[in-house]
Design goal:
2% strand, Four Helix Bundle (Hemerythrin (Met), subunit A), mainly alpha, elongated, two-stranded parallel ribbon
């Protein structure tokens, strides 16, 4: 195993351990609906993680631009994920009907769903690294899940006491990517 592969494996395992920690220690589950919605999510994540680990260990890698891009995506994912954790106290799991205050600091000042963005970065990084049909299919499902979750969470906010604040916030901040108007400032 060369040094690039070893670094990719170390980063990937660190990311997965971080995600598992968050799933059981950081995110809260308020309703049985939350748990039901994750029934398909968990097996798809399992396929994504297992396939990536298999490819990382079994596929000889060389120093290539794709490896470098994946390495950068993994680093960005990990940094964004932990910055999100530091910025917030805890969050509800997807599809929850409970809302807390609108967080507009840290990564949330640039995108409304930075946790989902961090997940997308790692799954996309793995998909481009190995160009496997399994990884691309799971990536498509996971991005669809995150979009659906984000829209559902936003609908809950828009029906809450924070609706005006959230509406103003969403006009300024993109869902998964920063709005270009922020770049112009």
């Amino acid at each position: 195993m060369n040094s690039i592969t070893a670094l990719l494996v170390l980063l990937y395992i660190t990311i997965i351990v971080s995600f598992i920690w968050a799933r059981f220690r950081y995110f809260t589950f308020q309703s049985s609906r939350s748990r039901i919605s994750s029934l398909l999510y968990d097996p798809v994540i399992g396929i994504q993680v297992s396939a990536t680990l298999y490819f990382l260990i079994a596929t000889p890698s060389t120093c290539s631009p794709i490896n470098a891009i994946s390495l950068v995506l993994y680093i960005l994912c990990l940094a964004l994920f932990w910055l999100n954790v530091v910025t917030t106290e805890h969050l509800e799991f997807a599809f929850s009907h409970h809302v807390g205050k609108v967080v507009t600091t840290g990564p949330f000042a640039y995108v409304r769903h930075p946790f989902y963005l961090s997940y997308i970065l790692v799954w996309f990084g793995s998909s481009i690294l190995f160009n496997s049909i399994f990884l691309w299919i799971t990536l498509i499902y996971l991005v669809s899940f995150y979009i659906t979750s984000a829209k559902t969470e936003e609908e809950v906010y828009l029906k809450s006491e924070y609706s005006r604040e959230y509406r103003d916030y969403s006009k300024k901040v993109g869902m998964f990517l920063p709005r270009i108007t922020l770049w112009k400032k």
